[in-house]
Structure to design on (258 residues):
């Protein structure tokens, strides 16, 4: 009698485990199908937004998503300053301005393929020490893609699409063209986009006339142009501009020694 009861209990336990296992596998299969469907939809979306890179290789700099959004805000909120955007050719941007922006935003710009893993590791280590997410590691290439095609949203899906388009841009465009695009669409104050507009707004001169000190201040405006710029001259802005200027002088001294 006892043996029969034990066999019955074992069979019942086995059936229960089998049903549970079957249910688990059913969930896994459905999760796999849904994941595959989402992947197909995402691939289709990327195909739709994928740019014609040949159009970006030369010629006029296109309006970024940020600039177009600002134009919409101007119409909806009348107190917004007018759009100040004056794209210029790369050859009119003085070398010390380019060096200042690279020093401020992406020191290894000419040596990576769109993603600076060293800067990313350093930023994550610092964030862990501070126990909060304070520093990112977006390269100039990533920022160019974000400004051109996306919003400032931090959702993971946007970052994934940004990664794909950054790879596409790095594969198709020369570094100087990427930098030229970035310097023409980056925000340097409310309604102020591009280095030419920034130079005229803050110093009353065209971009090619900027001094090294002024170039350092333009670069220090990034990445918080509304709060910290040559107009507000906050403590953070002044400290950052001095640091960039010192780096420029060290770089120039080292270059002269060669």
């Amino acid at each position: 009698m006892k043996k029969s009861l034990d066999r019955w209990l074992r069979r019942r336990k086995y059936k229960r485990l089998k049903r549970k296992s079957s249910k688990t596998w059913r969930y896994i299969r459905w999760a796999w199908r849904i994941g595959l469907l989402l992947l197909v939809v995402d691939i289709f979306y990327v195909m739709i937004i994928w740019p014609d890179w040949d159009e970006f290789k030369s010629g006029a700099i296109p309006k970024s998503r940020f600039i177009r959004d600002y134009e919409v805000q101007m119409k909806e909120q009348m107190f917004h300053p007018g759009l100040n955007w004056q794209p210029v050719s790369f050859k009119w941007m003085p070398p010390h301005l380019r060096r200042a922006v690279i020093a401020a935003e992406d020191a290894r710009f000419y040596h990576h393929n769109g993603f600076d893993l060293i800067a990313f590791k350093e930023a994550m280590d610092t964030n862990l020490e501070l126990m909060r997410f304070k520093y990112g590691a977006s390269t100039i290439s990533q920022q160019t893609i974000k400004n051109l095609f996306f919003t400032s949203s931090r959702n993971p899906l946007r970052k994934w699409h940004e990664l794909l388009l950054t790879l596409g841009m790095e594969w198709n465009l020369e570094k100087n063209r990427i930098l030229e695009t970035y310097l023409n669409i980056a925000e340097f104050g409310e309604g102020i986009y591009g280095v030419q507009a920034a130079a005229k707004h803050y110093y009353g001169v065209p971009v090619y006339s900027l001094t090294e000190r002024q170039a350092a201040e333009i670069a220090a405006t990034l990445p918080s142009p509304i709060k910290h710029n040559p107009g507000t001259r906050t403590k953070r802005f002044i400290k950052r501009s001095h640091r960039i200027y010192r780096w420029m002088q060290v770089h120039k001294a080292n270059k002269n020694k060669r």
About this structure: The mean pLDDT is 84.
